[in-house]
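Sample intake sheet
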Amino acid sequence: MSTRPPTIILADLHLSRGTPHEVGRDLARMLERHPGARVIVAGDLFDLATDTPAQSRQEAVGDVLGAHPEIRAALGSHLDGGGQLWLAPGNHDPDLGSEPLVRALLDAIGPSREARSRVRRTPWFFRVGGLHVEHGHVYEPDNAPEHP
């Protein structure tokens, strides 16, 4: 009988240059305790509204991760150790599902080429079997918004 690594769903970390370093320490500890896990970020990994007034969102991601070396190292190690990272955007990081922002994230955490293939992105939500994961900031009165 094989055991499948867990799926961990995170949301609303709102990482910025000013995020307390305890958040990074706790995130790093969680990733270390769950090697190989599929980590799904359901929006607002970053608080880009805080860190982007005078710069691009891609630069802000690099700056935020530069201010939190423990997060940068933990994410890179997680991917290099066989873990997965799935990214869905939130209202504070609406570009998180875009290729340029994911590239900026990967450049900042520096995983191997093979590890980069374990990162998935979506412009809105993930659905795996009976599991549906989204940030939930998209609202439409009849609950039927068009997919981006």
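Comment: The first strand starts at residue 7 and ends at 10. The longest helix spans residues 21-33.
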